[in-house]
Design goal:
The protein is α+β, with helices and mostly antiparallel strands. The chain contains 28 helices and 34 strands. The protein starts with 11 loop residues before the first helix and ends with a helix.
């Protein structure tokens, strides 16, 4: 026999070095972790959400401890028992001789090895378990839905709250048994209890007992898994076009799953019996029976039923289960109370129909509020006109909100003038400047969405609330903004009494050098007056200036976590927060308003979706995107506000009847305020959330059909159109508009979207969700007649681009010095007559500092296109003279214009003539009956041809002459039209 191989040892110096490195690593890790936890605690204490901090921390710690002890401890115990009952005598076969070296290495270190195994496995299990803290809290505080599952007859709360926790427990149970089994096998093998190559008995009695018990536990857990699988059928995706238990699941799999429960239980008993019987033949036979049964009745039989019974007549066999899926999906996504309206059945997009003209001329709600300002285009314009200083900025996407001024409700493009951390110049980017001088933004800017200030270059927003200090129609008592979307750094604020203010507040007078400074006196921020807290933040931010700078004093506070969305997510980690926070002036203070969603992925029979994908569109950015998590239930349960000055986070229960919200309110008592605490002014600024709406419209493209056969055939499916104004194949975003819905008495603020026929560009439906306080959340769907090809957004945009009046202007606008920018293509319902498309066209200067200005307005109704400097002019072209009188820009001066403002609100006639009608759309009979019309059409075509030739040749004089000829021809055409109408 060969002598045992000696175990290598480390020198004393090497041990000291390794020990010192290990201690330092542990020290840095512990200090960093404790510092982060302490800073988190200080933040929760400042915001008043310590209940959330302690509840989450305690729950995570509890789950970590239980999972770590159970997994690491039980695995180590199994290995210890395997070692404890190792055989005292081992036949010294070649196999055992080869294992002897390992035994000799492990023997003196067995306690260390067992401890290491327990610690490592425990850490992995603990970290995995603590991440499921919401699952445990949901289970512990579950709330009944008051609705029962149609298959099992139990409350839906079992599936949403209990079932996920049982699955989590089962998963950990399997993991522990498998790890214990692997550890036991390895230990028995190393120490002779399991002999693979030695002749004779392969297992000792102790090894047989231990392995039998572990295998019996595994199979017993499998029996539990089969039992839970029965309930898991409500999440089946076996149905081709729906989610939930299908015909095959209910009739060919539910009973087999029950049978497999008993087969697995018998198999487990057989393994436990092997402790006494001492023969693996019985459990082996039971295990084979379980495997065969699972394959035959759990896999093969359902597959046969699916293939030969269901598929030949799936529309009939699955009818009942499709009904369940439709009902549950609509309930899960809050779509079970939709107002469907058969729309424009008589007019069918006919611009000449008397009913259409009557509706248009009598409209006093939708047309006057037609939005000409696109918040997704005008950020550069706001910056150019209202930035004031480089340290200020506006977000890439502005917001739409509504205000009632002098008794009139209007929608406005709004933005907070924030501190832009990324806009600081090099000499402003020192630690002192970045963190103690430039600490906040200042002011609120608002412009009516349906009017512009006309100038020589084009129309720009009419800033009715503007400048510094803020002036205008919206009264603001506290304009300073210490918390906002563009502030991505911390600030150190506060100073002793009598000390001169050092925070830049706003410029003063006409000199660039004069400025007003300020000292923050709000309630927000974490006090760092003590040396310990200064040291804490020095470690947290790895910044020594917290200890060395004179700007940090006894009165100092640190403002951090300053993005409104981040603050709400931190204060309410059980919510998904909408990507678009928007500012509103409430009682003279600027507040950010956000929407919080409660979600679940366990609602039975409801279609599963990916949250990030479902809420994405052509304008979604990395900062506004939602996490791509699987879900099949969503509610806008919480409205949240963040005070722009002191950072106060307030959560309101917007849908208190939501069982998921009630569950978390039990888990975090006092965190969410009742809806009655919301002021009327705050409620008047609440909007229907965009991300929820995008999810719901996606669902409605399939689930607006209630007949199972039609649903299965997918013959009436809809589709979200691509955004025609963008170069990406992304969904068109929904748009906020102030318009009158069919059946309503007045205009309401609503979120809207057009829907096309599936894989077609024709319009099929128009969906809107009300944001008005009285009708908030009411969703209306206008269904267009399927036998009439209404133009969808992409077809309308194509018609605009190819129009013979638009094309020449686009050539001029898209030049070396400018770019044409199409604004949002809005779809507006005009009474019961039809849908009107309105799109602003901007021109942006190509040089540095260029910004978009409104140049033209495009309108489409049916087959008619209008293209003019104003909405009124474009409407006149489509519907005839006088049709645009109700448009806001038809007035010489808008009612809301500030008398002190220098520019006037007037339509800019520009240098181009009114565009001619689309020649292809003139009814042939008109020109045959009226020779004046025919002659005008010939002149228009000749002028257009001359204009195109002059543009190609760079002949500016020729272009001017062609434009004059075109104007003359258009005037003649319009005069002939009026004469033909007898005016």
């Amino acid at each position: 026999m060969r002598p045992p191989v000696p175990v290598p040892t480390l020198s004393r110096r090497a041990k000291l070095v390794i020990g010192a490195i290990a201690v330092l690593l542990v020290l840095f890790t512990v200090v960093g972790t404790l510092t982060s936890v302490y800073v988190d605690f200080l933040w929760f204490e400042e915001t008043g959400f310590t209940e959330v901090f302690w509840t989450e921390l305690q729950t995570r710690a509890l789950l970590f401890a239980v999972a770590a002890v159970a997994t690491g401890g039980l695995t180590a115990l199994a290995m210890y028992l395997a070692y404890r009952f190792r055989p005292t005598f081992r036949p010294m076969s070649l196999e055992q001789q080869n294992l002897e070296r390992y035994r000799q290495s492990l023997e003196p270190r067995r306690a260390l090895v067992l401890t290491g195994v327990a610690v490592v496995l425990g850490l992995f299990a603990g970290f995995t378990a603590q991440a499921n803290w919401e699952t445990w809290l949901s289970f512990r505080n579950s709330t009944d839905f008051g609705r029962t599952d149609p298959q099992f007859g139990i409350d839906l709360s079992f599936f949403v709250f209990d079932y996920p926790f049982y699955r989590l427990l089962l998963g950990f149970g399997f993991a522990i048994v498998i790890l214990a089994l692997i550890g036991s096998l390895l230990t028995h093998y190393v120490f002779g209890g399991l002999r693979l190559q030695t002749p004779g008995q392969k297992l000792t009695a102790a090894a047989r007992v231990q392995l039998s018990v572990l295998l019996g536990l595994f199979v017993a857990l499998k029996a539990v898994a089969y039992w839970l699988d029965r309930y898991g059928l409500v999440y089946s995706d076996r149905g081709d076009v729906f989610t939930g238990a299908s015909y095959t699941d209910v009739n060919a799999l539910l009973v087999p799953k029950t049978i497999l429960v008993f087969v697995a239980a018998v198999c487990a008993v057989a393994f436990f019996a092997n402790i006494v019987v001492r023969n693996f033949l019985l459990p082996a036979a039971a295990l084979v029976l379980l495997l065969v049964s699972s394959l035959v009745i759990g896999v093969a039989y359902p597959a046969i039923v699916q293939q030969f019974v269901v598929k030949p007549s799936a529309n009939e066999k699955e009818a009942l289960y499709i009904e369940r899926a439709i009902e549950s999906t609509l309930q899960a996504y809050g779509l079970d109370d939709i107002d469907y309206v058969d729309y424009a059945q008589d007019t069918a997009g006919d611009a000449d129909a008397p009913a259409v003209l009557a509706e248009l001329r009598n409209d006093t709600e939708t047309i006057p509020n037609a939005r000409l300002l696109d918040p997704n285009v005008l950020s550069e314009t706001f910056t150019a006109r209202q930035q004031i200083r480089n340290v200020y900025g506006f977000p890439e996407k502005l917001d739409i909100d509504r205000y009632e001024i002098d008794g009139e409700l209007r929608d406005y493009v709004v933005a907070a003038r924030e501190l832009d951390s990324a806009g600081l110049s090099e000499n402003q980017d020192t630690w002192i400047n970045r963190h103690t001088v430039y600490t906040h933004g200042n002011g609120f800017v608002a412009a009516p969405a349906n009017e512009v200030v006309a100038g020589q270059e084009g129309g720009e927003p009419n800033f009715t609330t503007r400048d510094l200090p803020p002036v205008g129609t919206i009264d603001i008592d506290q304009p300073r903004i210490y918390y906002g979307e563009l502030i991505d750094d911390y600030s150190v604020v506060g100073a002793p009494a009598g000390a001169p203010p050092r925070e830049f507040d706003q410029p003063e007078g006409g000199s660039e050098q004069e400025e007003i400074n300020n000292t923050y006196d709000g309630e927000g921020g974490i006090s760092i007056g003590s040396f310990f807290r200064q040291l804490t933040f020095a470690i947290y931010y790895r910044e020594r200036n917290f200890l060395l700078s004179g700007a940090v004093n006894d009165e100092s506070k640190v403002l951090h976590v300053r993005n409104p969305r981040d603050r709400v997510e931190k204060a309410a980690p059980f919510l998904e927060v909408d990507g678009d926070a928007y500012p509103a002036v409430i009682d003279g203070e600027i507040k950010w308003i956000l929407d919080g969603y409660t979600t679940s992925d366990s609602y039975p029979y409801a279609e599963q979706m990916e949250l990030g994908e479902a809420a994405a569109d052509a304008l979604t950015t990395a900062t506004t995107a939602l996490p791509n998590e699987t879900f099949n239930y969503i509610r806008n349960s919480v409205k949240a506000t963040v005070d722009a000055y002191d950072g106060t986070v307030t959560l309101y229960a917007w849908q208190p009847e939501d069982p998921v919200l009630q569950t978390f309110m039990k888990a975090f008592p006092g965190t969410i305020q009742p809806r009655t605490e919301m002021s009327e002014e705050l409620i008047s600024h609440v909007r229907y959330p965009q991300d929820l709406f995008k999810v719901q419209r996606d669902i409605l493209t399939r689930y607006h059909v209630d007949d199972p056969a039609d649903f299965y055939e997918q013959s009436d499916r809809w589709q979200i159109p691509d955004d025609p104004t963008q170069d990406t194949n992304q969904d068109q975003p929904p748009y906020y508009i102030l318009a009158q819905r069919p059946g309503d008495d007045e205009a309401t603020f609503q979120l809207t979207s057009a829907l096309n026929a599936f894989q077609r560009d024709n319009l099929s439906a128009f969906i809107s969700a009300s944001s008005a306080p009285e009708t908030y959340g009411d969703i209306q769907v206008l269904r267009l007649p399927g036998n009439t090809p209404f133009r969808g957004p992409e077809q309308v945009q194509n018609a605009f681009l190819t129009n013979n009046q638009v094309r020449p202007d686009l050539t001029l606008f898209n030049s070396e010095n400018s770019d044409a920018v199409f604004g949002n293509l809005l779809t507006l319902p005009i009474g019961d007559a039809g849908l009107l498309y309105v799109e602003p066209l901007y021109v942006r200067g190509a040089g540095e500092g260029g910004f978009p200005l409104l140049q033209k307005v495009l309108v489409n109704f049916g087959d008619r296109i209008g293209y003019a400097d104003t909405l009124a002019g474009a409407l006149d072209q489509v519907f005839g003279a006088g049709a645009g009188e109700s448009a806001t820009d038809s007035d010489d001066i808008a009612d809301t214009v500030d008398e002190d403002a220098t520019p006037e609100i007037v339509p800019d006639p520009g240098t181009n003539p009114d565009p001619a009608p689309d020649i292809d759309e003139i009814p042939p009979g008109d020109t045959q009956v009226n020779p004046d019309l025919a002659e005008a059409v010939v002149d228009i075509n000749a002028a257009l041809a001359a204009l195109a030739t002059a543009q190609r040749g760079g002949d500016f004089a020729g272009q001017g002459q062609a434009l004059e000829d075109l104007q003359t021809a258009v005037d003649a055409y319009q005069a002939a039209q009026r004469a033909a109408a007898g005016e």
